[in-house]
């Protein structure tokens, strides 16, 4: 099915063609006509499926037909969990809307208010924002919601995991009634459904059957290893394998910094992004990684949230994430849009609980391997697939 059948204007089709997209992905085929009909939508789709374009393209289409906004007003609002994702989505808005006359802005915390306030003075058509900063600026009367026509809650599960529910509810309560609402989430868990019930009247629901976790394009496996051998094993893998670039996920910012110095001692240059580094240096490292000058990037899950890099050949979980959906998000960074990828997890006995949750979430066991010289002394037991944790750490699920 070509893009031309979806009801998008020639200007949008042109920018999509310039980006080299041959045809719409499954989520785009399903979502775009629904959004163009003006319906509310709930979509279960993960990063890597092309979900961003599935709401940005029809949003551009609809807003390009209407009036431009007044001062301090916005017409399309996209709420996202992190600043990295805000930047990424807004970049997509610019790319896809290159041949249109719409304005956009990424708004997020951790940086000066002044430039964002300044950008809002003349109004923007599409605002991509993290909930906390948006509420702040709304409270300062820098932005008004009375002309909002469309709302997108992107990565809704993630926003709830990160504790944004109160901010989101405040925003929802201040938006005009009868606007078009779209919600995208990797999973439609109970808290997400609860949010959808309060936020979205009469939605059409779609889901992309294959989640990235089981995409054929990802060679997914784990290597069992003792915890104290992980950094030596990682060094071995980075040296032996022919990966042009690797994104390495790790649980904590201290762990990230330590790992980078351990790799450096063994002659491997790596960089880290985590919440302990300021926004400017995170952005710089990310740009260098995107440009290919940084080959190995060690990232904590939150810092890496908005990273969008095509053709990433390999993602390594240095430790296993919690909650399990993070695993799916993380490995979705590879094997995107048709290219092959490897997703490798280094799993020690300590990771067993998280492993059970991840494999239960996937509904299947992950292929196991050992590497000569690194066979673990402490075995990692085989998971129980219907594992239910005694204490769920996510308060919103209780
Ligand atoms: P997303 O799921 O929105 O994070 O998108 C994943 C990646 O797929 C991004 O790098 C997009 O640029 C790319 N992409 C989105 N739609 C298409 C398409 N129709 N054809 C090829 N690549 C696409």
TrEMBL record:
One GO cellular component term: cytosol
GO biological process: response to temperature stimulus; ribosome assembly
Catalytic activity: ATP + H2O = ADP + phosphate + H(+)
Motif (Q motif): 1-29
Keywords: ATP-binding, Cytoplasm, Helicase, Hydrolase, Nucleotide-binding
Gene3D superfamilies from the UniProt entry: P-loop containing nucleotide triphosphate hydrolases (3.40.50.300)
Keyword Nucleotide-binding: yes
GO molecular function annotations of the record: ATP binding; hydrolase activity; nucleic acid binding; RNA helicase activity
DEAD-box RNA helicase Q domain boundaries: 1-29
Enzyme Commission no: 3.6.4.13
Domain Helicase C-terminal: residue ranges: 217-378
Occurrences of domain Helicase ATP-binding (ranges): 32-206
UniProt cross-references to Pfam families, sorted A to Z: DEAD (PF00270), Helicase_C (PF00271)
Tagged with keyword Mitochondrion: no
InterPro entries membership: DEAD/DEAH_box_helicase_dom, DEAD/DEAH_RhlB, DEAD_box_RNA_helicase, Helicase_ATP-bd, Helicase_C-like, P-loop_NTPase, RNA-helicase_DEAD-box_CS, RNA_helicase_DEAD_Q_motif
Top-tier EC class: hydrolase
Stated family: Belongs to the DEAD box helicase family.
Protein name: DEAD-box ATP-dependent RNA helicase RhpA
Source species of the chain: Vibrio rumoiensis 1S-45
